[in-house]
Amino acid sequence: MLLLKNGKIFTLNNNKILYGDILVDKGKILAIDSNITSPGTKTINLHQSIVMPGLIDCSTSLGLIESASGLPGDDSNEKYENVISDLKSINGINYTDEYFKQAVSSGITTVVVNSGNTNVIGSQSCAVKTWGKSLHDSMISESTDICCTIGDAPKKWNQDKQESPLSRMGIINILRENLYNSRVYLENKNEGKISMDNFSRKYESLIPVLGKKIPLKITANRVQDILNAIEIKKEFNIDIILDGAAESYMVIDEIISNNIPIILGTCLTDNSSIELCNRRLDTAGILTERNILTSISTNHPHTVIGMLIITACLLVKEGMSYEHALKSVTVNPASTFGLSDRIGSLEPGKDADLAIFDGDPLKSMTKNIMTIVDGNIVHSV
User: Fold this and answer.
1) Residues 303, 290: Cα–Cα separation, whole Å
2) SS3 33
3) Number of Cα atoms under 13 Å in the Cβ half of residue 377
């Protein structure tokens, strides 16, 4: 057991801020209250340090693209495949990569790891804790979503091969064709018409999407790509998440009417690509003012994972509310991926994942002084 005393606790549950204690047992939060006593329990006095739920970065290639290893350490793509939905990102993660340690030292306790952006339909993403005895022990979900990309990247990677897709039309056609074929495959399966002769792992992998058990996480930045993603959602009656979403502020009404969560891509890179030329730093504030479920991400390694909380700081400066900024790296990503029963807020019964700061977490000079994952102190200064 572990007892944390005298903290300023941001539960991020019903906007409560408590001054008091947190009792942890067997990797779970046992109680949050004032003046908790537990004789014989390891006790740490936090001296009014701020305690938050462990941060969540919900769109990364952490461990798929390893530090300082170049091409041999890049397992994020199957370059010449258009559809790899039968693959799982968990099978490519190097859990010893040094950036897991950086995530921990920054207060990030959970990451969603997805494949890269060269495949139209990418792999099955997974949610993992950033610390654990093994990757298996740290797993929250092996399949949080299937990622897709409908911008420039898939057609660029195919230029040398001179095969479809070479255009946005080709990209959408491949996505639509595979979802349609998977729907027909499912109908045949339900009628007992699938045997080993016509079994397809790719179509099997898309069945949970058609059944709304997991969403498609679609990287789409430009307006036409966002609208195409919405049309795919409506045509196949599936759930989607928009990732990147640089020009989402231009189509807010469509996003709201279709109840689509947003993951805003990193804002700490330049806008030199055609995908990002219309990106605005105040987009997060615009979206959250309209009550769109919005998360933010580093898209590691596009921006190193330790910059997640700095990204939130910057977005507050550009108009995002303090409350929404904190939720964008905790409650919102947990809700977006259906993980709220375990992570995202501080409540009895949830995982004891905590980030503890020596001051206001949304000030750039503040330091993460302790990170706790599943009740274990894994970082302390």
Assistant:
1) 27
2) strand
3) 13
Assigned token pair, 210: 């058609």
Predicted local confidence at residue 205, as pLDDT: 98
What CATH architecture does domain 55-344 belong to? Alpha-Beta Barrel (3.20)
Average pLDDT over residues 193-218: 96
Q: Are 295 and 94 in contact (CB under 8 A)?
A: no
Tally of CA atoms within 13 A in the half-sphere of 132 that contains its CB: 18
Query: Up-side HSE of residue 169: CA atoms within 13 Å toward CB?
Result: 0
pLDDT tens-digit map of 265-277: 988 998 888 899 9
Q: Are 226 and 245 in contact (CB under 8 A)?
A: yes
Q: Following DSSP, what letter does each residue of 279-318 receive, concatenated?
A: --TTHHHHHHHTT--EEE--TTTTS-GGGHHHHHHHHHHT
The Cα–Cα gap between 126 and 65 comes to 15
Contact indicator for 104, 83 with CB cutoff of 8 Å = no
Distance, CA of 152 to CA of 146 (rounded, Å)? 19
**Residue 341 corresponds to which tokens in the numbers above?**
């029963």
